[in-house]
Write a structure and sequence with these properties.
With 152 residues, the chain is mostly beta strands. The protein has a domain of 97 residues: Immunoglobulin-like. Helices cover 12% and strands 38% of the residues. The strands form 2 sheets. A 4-stranded antiparallel sheet has the order 1-3-6-5, with no helix packed on it. It has a 4-stranded mixed sheet with strand order 2-8-7-4, with no helix packed on it. The longest helix is centred in the first third of the chain and has 18 residues. It is elongated and about 110 Å long.
């Protein structure tokens, strides 16, 4: 009898605890600002040496309070972010600009860390790609050597 009672209590407690959660497809209401990005990874792909390294991450404030980005920092000096200094109102969109120095040859993966007033406090964005080695200019023609021997 004790086993049956414990089993019923366990099942009842389990059902009550899950009855108050939302279904997986329902979004929970956010109290405060919330950032949603179209993508948090920007793939430059294979790009030319010294090509345009400017890209933009687009975000929307899906919360119910103004979003403030207080800082944006690249993982190295070759990655320079720009961000809106004014608050982003609920429902509004904005861009985080990033410039990668494409004078560096080879594969790269860099991050931009945003400091915000959201519940998470920080958000990490990633850029990646590969800068091709520049084509070498053809060598200048050299003066042909004379086949005539000089006699002294």
């Amino acid at each position: 009898m004790k086993k049956i009672f414990l089993a019923i209590a366990f099942i009842g407690g389990f059902m009550l605890s899950h009855a108050q959660t939302k279904a997986p497809n329902e979004k929970q209401a956010v109290n405060g600002p919330k950032m949603e990005f179209k993508t948090s990874v920007m793939d430059y792909g294979l790009i030319e040496h010294n090509s345009d390294g400017n890209r933009e991450f687009v975000l929307t404030n899906t919360g119910n309070a103004p979003l403030i980005i207080s800082n944006a920092k690249g993982s190295c000096g070759c990655t320079v972010p720009t961000w809106p200094k004014a608050p982003i109102a609920p429902g509004e969109s904005a861009s985080i600009g990033v410039k990668y120095s494409t004078n560096r040859i080879g594969k790269f993966t860099k991050t931009i860390t945003l400091t915000t007033n959201t519940e998470e406090k920080t958000k990490i964005l990633t850029i990646k790609g590969e800068v091709k080695k520049p084509l070498e200019a053809p060598a200048a023609p050299t003066k042909p050597k004379s086949s005539v021997l000089e006699v002294k």
